[in-house]
Amino acid sequence: WPLYTMRGAVVSIQVAILMAVILTIAIAVAGYLYTTFYSSLQYIYVAVTQAYAYPRDGGTEVKLCFMVGGSGGLKIVGAELNGKEASGVTVVVRGRETSEVKAGDAGYVKAFFPGLQLAPGQMAVGRVATLQGFSFLFTPQVSNTEGVCPGE
Question: Which of 1, 22, 43, 146 has its CA 20 to 30 A from that of 69?
Answer without folding.
Answer: 146
